[in-house]
Amino acid sequence: MSLPIKLMGEVEMALNGLNGYAQCFFGSGCELGPIFESKLLVVEDYCRNLGRQSSLILFSMFRQFALNLRKHSDSPSKLVGEAFNEEQVLSELEGSAHFQTLRDSSSLRVQLAFVFWNEADMIDLLKILETYPLQDQFVARLHNRLAFTGLAAFAMCHRKDCASYKALGEKCMSRFKFLSKNGSVNARPVYLFLKSMKSPSRDAFSKAIEACAEGKFVNLEAMVNERYAAFLREENDEAASNDCITEAYFLYQDWGAHAKALQLSKDHSFLKKSRRKTTRSFAHTVGSNNNTATASVMSAGSDDPASKKKMTFSFNSTLKQRKLVSVKSEKKK
Q1: In angstroms, what CA-CA distances link 138 with 19, 23, 134, 142?
Q2: Which of 89, 220, 230, 279 has the most CB atoms at less than 10 Å from its CB?
């Protein structure tokens, strides 16, 4: 008697491939949005039907991560919402399942804490992540974990009570330095971003911004611009700092991180009057000199002829094309 065939193909291989897809999607800064979230929902149903609880947890976690970046939340660095509740899930797990799930959730949360700049959460998450080995057979997962563990470590090590995290940051950075020297185009932007966080300077930030722009890592380019803005503010270069904040604001929107863009607009009222002039990196304009940079954004009332142009965007599921479209000013009759 023949048995009913319930599955076709290698389930584990399929789930690992989907995990890798999601990790690469996040790491490369692909556009967040309902289309991607709907794909995650399909995978969740797939896992649920197969009885793969650990995978169901993982993809629900991914969806909540994306939702936190895209939709407003009172606690954006916490994985709790319509897709996932970290505290509840972890309370139901034991042993290796708890250990691995905590690693994955903490890796995602440290990214959120860095993006939304929650120092308390960054410190708490670094305490968790430093207990895990800095190795993983899953390259994409390791890339994202070490990138943001390193960034958070360098961000916090300047505090007296967190100086020990500098060593953790250097360990993470050493991996990207090695990969970058061996020609990895994915590692170089991360490596230069880490260097700029470790030893902040105009030159270091400019190089990091340019590398992110060249590699089209819109997520990282947005973050570097925001960190550069904070550095310039401390240098009392308010005009250049505002330029970088404005660039970061539009880049976060490009990424689909609208919750972060909203946070910036609330913290910086001048953004409400800013319009986009160009999508180029600020590395060419906010350079290594002490002079105020030429802005790549302008106020709504600017007399610059370029104010008659604006950026519009055309998207599909695999390619984002940027088109500069002329806008004719309406004349009153």
Answers
A1: 10, 10, 12, 6
A2: 220
Q: 239: Cβ–Cβ under 8 A, 6 or more apart, which residues?
A: 292, 293, 295
Q: Residue 191: which of 283, 323, 183, 97 has the closest Cα?
A: 183
| pLDDT tens for each residue of 302-329 | 444 443 333 333 333 333 333 333 333 4
Exposure on the CB side of residue 15, measured as CA atoms within 13 A: 19
What is the bridge-based pairing of β-strands 309-315 and 297-299? unpaired
Contact criterion met (CB below 8 Å) for 273 and 295: no
Longest CA–CA separation in the chain, Å? 85
Give the other-Cβ count within 10 Å of 286's Cβ: 29
The rounded distance, in Å, linking the Cα atoms of 96 and 119 is: 28
Going by C-alpha positions, the residue among 231, 184, 224 that lies closest to residue 207 is 224
Alpha carbon of residue 309 to chain centroid: 28
This prediction has a pTM of 0.81
Other CB atoms within 10 Å distance of the CB of residue 188: 22
Nearby residues of 306 by Cβ (< 8 Å), 6 or more positions away: 277, 298
